[in-house]
Amino acid sequence: MLSLEEAQSRAQDLVAAARRAGADAADAVYACNASTNVSVRLGALEDVERSEGEEIGLRVFIGRRSASISASDMNPATLATLVDRCIAMAGQAPEDPYAGLAPEDRLLRKKLPALDLADPFEPEPAQLRERAMIAEEAARAVPGVTNSEGGGAATGRSQMALATSHGFAGAYAGTSHSTWASVLAGTGADMQRDHASHSVRHIADLDDADAVGTRAGRRAVARLNPVKVGSGVMPVIFDPRIGSSLVGHLIGGMVGPAIARRSSFLLESLGEALFDSGVTIIDDPLRLRGLRSRPFDGEGLPVERRALIDRGVLTGWLLDSASARQLGLQPTGHASRGGSGAPGAGVTNVHMEPGRQSPGELMADVKRGLYVTELIGMGVNGVTGDYSRGAAGFLIENGAVGRAVSEITIAGNLKDMFRALAPANDLAFRYGMNVPTIRIDGMTVAGG
């Protein structure tokens, strides 16, 4: 794996070569990943996998024509051919009035912020195996667990470098450590499956393996003997594990390309109160040790903490440079980048601020409702906001979580759901996108 300095230099060299070959402008992104994953099942080692890969992508502009290309071969001759092919492709591409690099006067010029994303410790495969064994053993030890899909532990390191022909160059690295377990409870047709996992940047922040396994086992057992639920309109409580998907749908409607194409259910909602005034949603790319933190965006622009929803109000769109030009606006530092192709737009570490009530208080007045822990299918229309997904979880009766339920469908419209949304006070930062327990009244539930 290249050092950060070497990665940045590799991207800069490719951009310089493109300019010498006749490109009016260019940018290059280099990415490499290395990971080790150990999995076990029923107390025996099942797999040890080591993967390493690197990719470099080049985008060139000739006037308003552009093309991009990528390669995993870093041989100088291969990269020279890459440049020639990309230039030739750009010459045949259609003109795009919105294509181009990010505005030069908005590039990040300061020293990159220190986000503590890279852990110097790299566990040996034997240590990963021990952690995987402990997680699966703890899950299988839960009374009622009858079989296992396995346990695992992994570690990884990734590096990213970006260089542009108009003055930006930067690189950063990040590490990951994770533990997981997945088990089954019950027998025959009545078997139920569930899992637990935890991922962090630094191993010091990782949950104990036995705690991860115990959670997996208890979740599987709790799902045994599900009952049917009659159809009707009722409150639905979303577990924090899956409540973040609602924020994901919101973000899908906020990205600049969707707005520019006029294909978003939020098209006419800028500046409107989409949620209750008690709801604030934050995107924070500068969170220390955050799973999605980054010091700059995919076009070399600075990033900052921002309220996407401020006391219920939609504050703006998530814009890369191309969609910003199309909308007559400025990019917002939300460009996302892969190894090839033009940048898109996206978010980093997102969370919904906690409310004031505990989860118990949030559901105390629910006579009959659902506590949802799993969502199935992708029945969400990003243009209309219509929402319909399969679900499983638990019945809420007289303010208490009770029997397991399965084979149900929950439906509504995202705008109506947002207006009715109320968060609990149990926010915890465990994922790239985090929410507390969420209550939404008035959802349509169809039983199996």
Structure description:
One of its GO terms (biological process) is proteolysis. The chain is α+β, with helices and mostly antiparallel strands and 448 residues long. The chain has two domains: 218 residues, PmbA/TldD fold (2-Layer Sandwich), CATH 3.30.2290.10; 114 residues, no CATH class. Helix content is 22%, strand content 36%. The strands form four sheets. The protein has a six-stranded antiparallel β-sheet with strand order 3-2-1-4-5-6. A five-stranded mixed β-barrel has the order 7-14-15-16-19. Strand 2 and strand 3 form a beta hairpin. Helix 3 packs parallel to helix 4. The longest helix has 17 residues. The model has no long low-confidence stretch (mean pLDDT 96).
Question: In terms of topology, how is this protein built?
Answer:
Blueprint: H1 4-20, E1 25-41, E2 44-62, E3 65-71, H2 76-92, H3 125-140, E4 145-164, E5 169-185, E6 192-200, H4 209-222, E7 232-238, H5 240-252, H6 256-260, E8 281-283, E9 306-310, E10 313-314, H7 321-327, E11 335-336, E12 344-345, E13 350-352, H8 359-362, E14 368-376, E15 386-397, E16 400-413, H9 414-419, E17 421-423, E18 433-434, E19 438-446
Parallel strand pairs: 7-14, 13-18
Antiparallel strand pairs: 1-2, 1-4, 2-3, 4-5, 5-6, 7-19, 8-9, 8-13, 9-10, 11-12, 14-15, 15-16, 16-19, 17-19
Domain Metalloprotease TldD/E central: 119-224
Protein name: Putative Zn-dependent protease PmbA
Region (Disordered): 329-358
